[in-house]
Design goal:
The protein is an alpha/beta fold. It contains 11 helices and 16 strands.
């Protein structure tokens, strides 16, 4: 079954919503204007229930089918932008300096709104569809906030599904996999304290820069020498701050970075090794090393039955050769993981074509993907809730 005619008819209107959202990006939980836009559209469409303030600034819409009572599924989109200065040159570029939709959440929100409009018009299903518009995906754990706010039980959600665009995957194609599809994330800060002194007399000092440099190098052995080569782990040091003069050995250095894993056992071992490396090198160099380690988003884990079902729905729209059912996991993080811990479901990627990569100043969501995304959401709901 190809793209729905009605979805194609609505594409320009939905693209207009998307570009309005793109011009007005908001960060983290401060998505007040976006949430108001979303709730206004859901009410305009005639949703049976529209609730704001779930997970602080999340919005939930409920549509009941016309084919009798039945199950309830959740469909989720994220609303927040990123603290990046846009460089697309588009006529609808961000009107707020230092903020932009560099991950396509404007497109995700617009596609789910398009599906809401269609489903509210037709209601060709039993049970209920719950439309979830989530804040704070980009590091704020908005998905967890909505789950903790009792969303799943309050609206009776039995299964939950998410979708994200993928640059490089052709428009009209989809990709997913059962099991781990995106990584668990953690962040660390390492404070190295030595003894400052004159750069020409290093023997009288304890050099925190030399100590921190050895830590950076040694942390790479976690992946290279202490993790099974068939497992996946990333340890990246992304900050190195210390010193402010050519001829002074500083007192302190701060390192920071991220860890990405696909299995809990690997995550635990990586954390242990990071602490051991810091303690050992600090002792060897005569420096004090303090580690602050925060485990953040868990692994985004697709449930087998729901993944198979989502793949079948995507194939009905895109064709068998256009759905990649065994994509390689990505080491990026995604807080839809919290919803998949609360309920069975699946996370799928939709092609964004030959665009700049996610989180890049030149990135833009591809409006040509809209009809495919709306069709996926509609068919998923109607098939999952068939009478």
């Amino acid at each position: 079954m190809p793209v729905l005619n009605r979805a194609a008819e609505l594409q320009n209107e939905i693209a207009g919503w998307r570009r309005t959202l793109h011009q007005n990006p908001e960060l983290n939980y401060d998505v007040f204007q976006t949430a108001e836009f979303v709730s206004g559209k859901l009410k305009e469409f005639g949703c049976d229930e529209v609730v704001s303030g779930i997970g602080r600034t999340g919005v939930v819409g409920v549509i009941h089918g016309n084919l009798g009572t039945g199950a309830t599924i959740g469909l989720r989109a994220d609303m927040d932008a990123l603290p990046i200065t846009e460089a697309t040159g588009k006529s609808y570029a961000s009107a707020t300096p230092g903020k932009m939709h560099a991950c396509g959440h404007d497109g995700h929100t617009a596609m789910l709104l398009g599906a809401a409009k269609y489903l509210a018009e037709t209601r060709n299903f039993s049970g209920s569809v719950v439309l979830i518009f989530q804040p704070a995906e980009e590091g704020g754990a908005g998905g967890l906030a909505m789950v903790k706010d009792g969303m799943m039980d309050r609206f009776g959600i039995g299964r939950v599904f998410g979708m994200h665009n993928m640059p490089g995957l052709p428009v009209g194609q989809f990709a997913l996999r059962p099991g781990p599809i995106m990584a668990a994330t953690a962040e660390f800060t390492i404070n190295v304290r030595g003894k400052g002194g004159h750069a020409a007399m290093p023997h009288l000092a304890v050099d925190p820069i030399a100590t921190a440099s050895q830590i950076v190098t040694a942390l790479q052995t976690i992946a290279a020498r202490t993790t099974d080569p068939l497992d996946s782990v990333v340890v990246s040091v992304t900050k190195f701050h210390g010193g402010n003069a050519y001829n002074v050995i500083p007192e302190t250095v701060e390192l920071a970075g991220t860890v990405r894993t696909l299995r809990k056992e690997v995550a635990a071992r990586t954390r242990e090794r990071l602490h051991a490396i810091c303690d050992g090198i600090g002792a060897a160099m005569g420096a004090t090393v303090d580690v602050h380690y925060d485990a953040n988003y868990p692994v985004t884990f697709n449930h087998a039955d729901e993944t198979s079902f989502a793949g079948d729905v995507a194939e009905a729209i895109a064709g068998k050769g256009s759905v990649h059912r065994e994509m390689q996991p990505l080491m990026g993080g995604e807080d839809f993981s919290y919803m998949l811990e609360a309920r069975p479901g699946a996370f799928i990627f939709i092609g964004n074509g030959d665009s700049a990569n996610l989180h890049h100043p030149a990135y833009d969501f591809n409006d040509e993907a809209i009809a495919h995304g709306v069709s996926y959401w509609v068919r998923l709901a109607e098939t999952a809730l068939a009478a």
